[in-house]
Specification:
By secondary structure, the chain is mostly helical. About 40% of the residues lie in helices and about 5% in strands.
């Protein structure tokens, strides 16, 4: 599958999505949020994160980082959330 001219592995992104939404910090997220994000991921290969999702994914020691560079499929890494 490609997004623009860049191939990406949707299966990998879906696994990472599942890992991320399984984090205890997201246990109080409304179920419809997960469904909305999953639909966008399947449709576009990425999804728009909420502020809470970005902050949770940016926490040191988080098992999965929340953001991918949209054009390259590489993951961004940062050590602390900026506020």
């Amino acid at each position: 599958m490609t997004r623009g001219s860049t191939p990406f592995d949707l299966g990998r992104r879906l696994r990472e999505f599942d890992e991320f939404f399984a984090l205890p910090e997201l246990s109080d997220s409304p179920p419809e949020r997960r469904c909305e994000a999953m639909a966008e991921l399947r449709r576009t290969g990425t999804y728009t994160h909420t502020v809470d999702e970005i902050l949770i994914g940016a926490q040191p020691g988080a098992t999965t980082r929340a953001a991918w560079a949209a054009s390259s499929g590489k993951r961004w890494r940062w050590s602390t959330p900026g506020t």
